[in-house]
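[Q] Does anyone have a clean structure-token version of this?
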Amino acid sequence: MNKGFKVFTFLLCASLALMFFSCKSTPKVDDVEEVVEVVEEEASDKKALSDLESLHAKIEAARKEAIKNEADSLYPESFQFVDAEYEAHKMFTKTKIVAAEHIASAQRVLNRYEALNFSALATKAKKRVDGFQFKSYDEAAYALGVEKLSEAEKGYLADFDTETQRTVAEEAYFAFRSILNKAFKDLATTKRQELIALRAEVDAIKAGAADKAGYNSAMLVFTAGEANFAEGEYEDAYSEYLDAHDALSELYERVLEKRAAALRAMEEAREKSEAVDKFALEADEIAPLENEDGNEE
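[A] Here you go.
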């Protein structure tokens, strides 16, 4: 066998070996597509499960918040309806692998509990508006709140759009809340003006020096009111202005009383001194004192 033949044989064997291993290591196109589909499906399932778990956590939080705001006592039948819907949803999620319909079902339940919470908040806000007789501050907002609250309360039906129900309940709450804010802003503004005028009177009589602790305490409350007013927390601001005004009024009256008592004491001392002088003068006229030489003055 000559040298050229040997080289040819070697190259032929090498080529056959490469072809063999190449065919064995490269998967078919169909096999690759199947693997990709399985991986994508597993990733999709994990995301859906994660989304569902997140919604369930939000549902539990929304339910607790609704109970905190007394939705279960203000709307007992509606609350029981939503609880039953929640239980049905949990049974539904056990039927098969999590899918889009499970996510949609959870979202509907979440909307229900949030609607209940806003309805409860709106109802309590309306009661406060009525109790304080604040309706006149914004009658248009009051009418809107009544309309939206009624619409939300009628929404506990299986075929009612839950997102719409949540939205109208929220709108009802914001309507009544806006009336409370407007009213308390007006009250806080008036009380603040009264408080500033009173502080000027307190400073005029140096009450801060007479009772530094009491004065500083009242000023701290006033400062807290200023911060709340700047942040739009008008009800809290009004309450703090009211407390500061009461504290300064009490301080003012107390310092005035102390001053009056001191003046009375000084007047009494002066009167006593004058009485003593008068008595001494009368006594001297009746029985004049003799000088050292025995002569009368």
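[Q] Thanks! Anything notable?
[A] The chain has two domains: 37-182, 205-285.
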